[in-house]
Amino acid sequence: MIYYPQQQSKVEQNLKRRLKLEQAILELTNVLESIEKGHSRDPYAGVIAGAYALWLGTTKKVVDIENLPVFLEENEENETIRMFLLDQLAKHWSEYRRHITAFTPEQLMELILTYKKIDYVRSISSAPEKLHDLVIALLDIKDSDSVADMGAGVGDFLKKVHFAHPNAELWGNEIATMETAVAMIRAKFLNNKLTVVQEDMFISQPDDHKFDKIYCFPPWGLRLGIMPSARVFLESQPPTLPILKGTGACEWIFALRMLSSLHPNGKAALLMANGIHLA
Predict the structure, then answer these.
(1) Three-state secondary structure call for residue 266
(2) By the 8 A CB rule, do 162 and 189 touch?
(3) H or E element that contains 174
(4) Is the pLDDT of residue 245 over 60?
(5) At 42, which helix (H) or strand (E)?
(6) pLDDT by residue (tens digit) across 37-51?
């Protein structure tokens, strides 16, 4: 590609701006992680909570937040997010207060959207981004589609779909409180067509939500014995599934749950561990 002088100048400006932002994000990450490492083995939740609380402060143009509960009651309408912030920050908020004016809303937003969660069970940060790219291509997602992520975690897949297809209607559910809160926070920076709810996908009513495309990355190695809601869901399925009803492994039950919310001509993708056996 050939750039003319004026175009080259604009490209250089954008590159310099991006590099400056990345440097600021690195500094911000180091500051927040240094705070959280004194209070938690896994700093992820605290870093996201701290960044969002600071973002609220900067957008409200305050120079200090002495009483965090009162500030959140007045400025954050989502109760799940409010409770998450208080749970993560209340005991050491004084360590965050000094940084309210140190970073810009853009820098804080960028950190919230890009900071990686390490899953200490899988030892990965949800599914790799390239795998999300593959799933989006395989599902053949269109801007007019409704797309669901069942077990959305912190919303990595939904974020990826949003940037690839900004007009698609996105929906995700998640059972874990921390992950739900983070996904809800991230959704605030994307678009109003992205909804995240906290629920057990096997207790929710499939008929209430039908989607064109569905994705699911379930926890690997779960057994029915520790998932009573999945067993109840499985028993509600037609008696034409004797093999599945006799297995203790759960991955195929997630597949059934996806299919129960899929439009007749829709597509679904389920990530499964290699070499899994149904027994």
Answers:
(1) strand
(2) no
(3) strand 169-174
(4) no
(5) none
(6) 889 888 999 999 999
Query: Which spans in 128-267 are helix H?
Result: 129-139, 156-164, 177-188, 228-235, 242-245, 251-260
pLDDT digit string, tens, across residues 119-133: 544 444 456 778 899
Q: Is 149 helix (H, G, I), strand (E, B) or coil?
A: strand
- Least Cα distance to 212 among 144, 136, 150 occurs for 144
Q: What percent of the chain has pLDDT over 90?
A: 61
> pTM for the whole thing?
0.86
Residue-level pLDDT at 219: 82
3 state SS of 214: strand
**Cα dist from 35 to 31, 49, 185, whole Å:** 7, 12, 20
Cα 149 from chain centre:
10
Q: Where are the alpha helices (DSSP H) in the chain?
A: 5-36, 44-59, 68-75, 79-89, 94-97, 105-114, 129-139, 156-164, 177-188, 228-235, 242-245, 251-260
| CB-based contact 257:209 (threshold 8 Å) | no
* Long-range contacts (CB closer than 8 Å, 24 or more residues apart) made by 126-133: 126/153, 126/154, 126/156, 126/157, 126/217, 127/156, 127/157, 127/217, 127/271, 129/156, 129/160, 131/271, 132/156, 132/157, 132/160, 133/160
> What single letter denotes the amino acid at residue 226?
I
